[in-house]
Amino acid sequence: MARVDPYRAFRFRVEFDGIEHGGFARVKGMARETKVDSYREGGVNDHEHKFANITTFGNLVLERGLADDYLWSWHEQVISGSQFKRRPIAVILHDETDQPVWRWLFERAFPVKWSGTDLDAVSSQMVVQSVEFAHHGFRRS
């Protein structure tokens, strides 16, 4: 039987509306949590009943070197209150042969926070932008 190794976290791509728009160094916030309600039934003293409630999704955070103004401009539209487009964001994990093996689709995403690294004249560090996205949940696709 062939050994199945875990996938490595550095082989991924990010797409907006099905189009890859630049490379990203880091993807964070891929988390979901289902809230649980507890109910104690009278006469049952050895356990509580647990019921699934609403599932919440944290914001998706994408980080990359500052090279163009695509994400900045999108966030500007949100800030100005003008019509902005909610877009699907796909995060695609690849195996060691560069074949896609997992694909997560974040529904109706839009940027809610933009931040950049500190500028420092004595450092040779690359400027990195971090953009946080609210969304309506994610699923495997």
Structure report:
The chain is extended and about 70 Å long. The chain starts with 11 loop residues before the first strand and ends with a strand. The strands form 2 sheets. Strands 1, 2, 3, 6, 7, 8, 9 and 10 form an 8-stranded antiparallel β-sheet that branches. The chain has a two-stranded antiparallel ribbon with strand order 4-5. The protein contains 1 helix and 10 strands. It has one domain: Pnp Oxidase, Chain A. The protein has 141 residues and is mainly β. The protein has one helix at residues 70-80; strands at residues 12-16, 19-20, 26-28, 32-39, 49-57, 60-65, 87-94, 100-116, 128-134, 138-140.
Keywords:
141 residues; mainly beta; Pnp Oxidase, Chain A; eight-stranded antiparallel β-sheet; two-stranded antiparallel sheet; 10 strands; 8% helix
Which architecture does the CATH hierarchy give at level 2?
Roll
Number of strands: 10
In whole angstroms, how far apart are the ends? 28 Å
Major sheet: 8 strands, antiparallel
Mind telling me the C-alpha Rg?
20 Å
- CATH topology, which one? Pnp Oxidase, Chain A
Q: Which parts are unreliable, with pLDDT below 50 for 5 consecutive residues or more?
A: none
SS element count, helices: 1
SSE pattern, N- to C-terminal: EEEEEEHEEEE
CATH classification, class level: Mainly Beta
Helix content: under 10%
Summed over residues and divided by their number, the pLDDT gives a mean of 90
- Global morphology: extended
Q: How many domain units? A: 1
CATH superfamily: Hcp1-like
Write the layout of secondary structure elements.
Blueprint (H helix, E strand, L loop, with lengths): L11 E5 L2 E2 L5 E3 L3 E8 L9 E9 L2 E6 L4 H11 L6 E8 L5 E17 L11 E7 L3 E3 L1
Antiparallel strand pairs: 1-2, 1-7, 3-6, 4-5, 6-9, 7-8, 8-9, 8-10
